[in-house]
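Team,

Forwarding the record for the chain on the shared tracking sheet. I've put the sequence and predicted structure together so nobody has to dig through attachments.
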Amino acid sequence: MGGAFCLLDWTFIPSDRMLSTELLGFYRDLKDRNFVVADLETTGFKPPIARVTEISVLQANLQDGVQSQYSTLINSRSEVPYHITKVTGITQDMVDEAPDAEFVWPDYYQHLKTGILVCHNLDFDYPFMRSELKSCGIEFTKPSHERLCTVIFSRLMLPDLPSRSLPNLVKHFGFDVGPSHRAESDTMACWLLLERLLKEMMDTDDEELLKRFSRQWLPDRDAAKILNCQTYRAIEILTDAGVRSRSSRKNTTVMYQRGEVERVALERSGQQLGMDLI
């Protein structure tokens, strides 16, 4: 198929790389769905070297709100580093006295396998879930259209905020939850964020939402996905088109606003279509 990009079917995980109209359709379609919202605390950043020390799972939907929430510390027979204790408050003694992982995960699997899985930074939590369940002999896979990341969603809906970290969003909205970096309070905060953003989306017309989406700043690698080319080539294309850019807060990534990237992509698609018709 010719063109700079093609529309995808509805079996994708929503991400910064998709077109605004696709994302709008995906999120609007969630109003009647059931969600399983989860958060983990861990000993590090990458499984299976790092292990989970705490889990909380909440089941909810927009019609009935929260239906259940279950939380527990987990003894994964691993060391809790000092810097993790400093951030989370979870100590080695707390973990050592908790239920063993092989008893916890099969029970929580029954909750995790139902509904759309929602996490704040899904790319972090989901691999941990899969790894821990695999160690218990359970294969856990959610289809991409059954997963939702509230970091990605909040970048679309809240493009003008300087940070979409969960503690900062809790402060911004004044959510009445417990301390950050504990699974139970972070899971509730994630649900309250999702609920608020989905209801706001349902109450806002498409034109206004697409204007809001257009203000999102995309990293160059995601702009390249929309333009269907390598990152270096995307930077060249957007520079030639006079698209304004900025550096990320760490000054390691070139950023572009979604609306401008999609405008250039549509122009290139039209040009390619014209060439295909010749």
